[in-house]
Amino acid sequence: MSRPRWVVGVDIGGTNLVAGVVPLEGGEPRALRTQPTLSHRGPEAVVTDVVRMARTAVREVLAEIEGKPEDVVGMGVGCPGPVDRQSGVVIESPNLRWVDYPLRERIEALVDWPVVVDNDANCATYGEWWQGAGKGCSSLVGVIIGTGVGGGFIYEGRIVHGASDGAGEVGHMTLNVSGRRCACGNEGCLEAYASGPAIAARAREGLEAGTESVLTSLVDGVFDDITAATVYEAVVMGDPYATEVMTETAKFLGAGIANLINILNPEAVVVMGGVTRAGDHLFVPLQAEVRRRAFKALVDACRILPARLPESGVVGAAGMMAAGVRSQPTA
Amino acid sequence: MSRPRWVVGVDIGGTNLVAGVVPLEGGEPRALRTQPTLSHRGPEAVVTDVVRMARTAVREVLAEIEGKPEDVVGMGVGCPGPVDRQSGVVIESPNLRWVDYPLRERIEALVDWPVVVDNDANCATYGEWWQGAGKGCSSLVGVIIGTGVGGGFIYEGRIVHGASDGAGEVGHMTLNVSGRRCACGNEGCLEAYASGPAIAARAREGLEAGTESVLTSLVDGVFDDITAATVYEAVVMGDPYATEVMTETAKFLGAGIANLINILNPEAVVVMGGVTRAGDHLFVPLQAEVRRRAFKALVDACRILPARLPESGVVGAAGMMAAGVRSQPTA
Q1: What pLDDT digit, counting tens, does each position of A102-122 carry?
Q2: Which domains does chain B have, with CATH numbers?
Q3: Do A177 and B173 touch (CB under 8 A)?
Q4: CB contact under 8 A, B172 and A297
Q5: Which residues of chain B have a CB within 8 Å of the CB of A260?
Q6: Residue B215: which region, alpha, beta or left (left: phi > 0; alpha: psi -120 to 50)?
Q7: Complex-level ipTM
């Protein structure tokens, strides 16, 4: 087995599809490509696109290294929402509006490789553990800030999937029993304070109350145009109000991460998503809040790190497939 | 190997020492005995008592079944506070006032068996998984309500110890970012609402404000004498105020358990400690709160159960030793 072998990784997001090819033994993803998901077209159209992207990426890599089709040994796919790993069925993905969709079966019908399917937050966490910020850790928690707040937990080198493949819903941890209403119906969830839309909503609230900020000019006075990205931009520009919004975000995120550290005592927590662009404006108050709330010995044992990979989800999906392939006896 | 083999289990508590002998393959603990810890005498006196209790229990069991000393294959010891399992050193136990005490080494010097040492909450959780309410589950969270609130997490049949053997501090999960001050220095911890002393303190606050309750007569008007046990007693007697205190306890405990279910997706959560004596007065509002806060699919996958063993900690300590012995190849 002297020729390099490869695994395909795909991240099916609510907004974009991303695909790439990763060496079986780990390394940089190659031939990365992205295109809009356009999920309103239904799951079959998305699967067709995913398979086309994967095939093109594989062709590109094999041409470059003069490889052969059999050098590609599998494909991992990350997808939002709970996924039944055994059957490869996406149980429910509100972002994609899929219910009980047999994703693995449909992809496997179109490609020549075995396919594994897992939740996108698990894939992103696995990617950062396998090749990113958490490389070499035996236990790691991933916290992914996006439209929602997701997470994953790796223990002794394996994702903790839980009893029904649903573990890792860290965004719906109650931090404030009578707090802000969350989209899930609960009150005071981490997600209700720290998701992208929650950050934007909190920023808008202050502006509507008359607070002065560079944010107003960044969106030409149209407060509805404010997104979390606008807030990060204003923070980097040194805007005091945006910095205040970011500090408050860091406090809630810090309380949530403190809980995860007290419960799980991980070697590392990797924070992923656009929020990490705020850099020290996020991580300094976040670290302080964690230290204030979690046990000292457990905080000392844990590094809190920003994600390092550009496409944690693609690398992680490929990595899960790779782990399965590598653990099989070679015939 | 036809004669039955045995493991000793010991639970070193802040108040009492408990010891017993458990069949290697599982079963009822035998020759259970308990005596006050009297930790002010220092660790050596406690170790001497533990060893004496273990030897007496072993003699009793071996006499009864006409066994031989070599039928006892090991001893497990549970102890409050973080424990370094590799070295068997108790890192810090505020309840016992021990710091960096080499517990395993000191016990092994006095007995003929190998010894394992672990945190008491981990032992209690393991006991309920091995022989109690969670028997047969692949994943289980234990929540132990006593002077503090402790916990443990079993995944695929093994305790998740974390990076520095400190996982399971579920009592210090923030549920209320600006809430009640906890003994740990943090605000709004589960323990600040649901530990035995917190339940008693909340009950006292209402009585001092003039609320009528059977609690007043149960302690002859001396509010300082109210403990969590008094509150459970009044609940069982049907006292409306005590029931209200218990319902509030159930709400916080429910929010904490909902967080654990969202994060870990366990097959079962086992609640241990005196609080379970309140029965349905606790479990009915607790279940409702969990259902209100956690994802439906994860709640549906999880049973919330009261502990079943009288001495979960003794059985679990023995069980951890037993797991180690059984996993060794028989020479």
Answers
A1: 999 999 999 999 999 999 999
A2: 6-119+311-327 (3.30.420.40), 139-306 (3.30.420.40)
A3: no
A4: no
A5: 263
A6: alpha
A7: 0.93
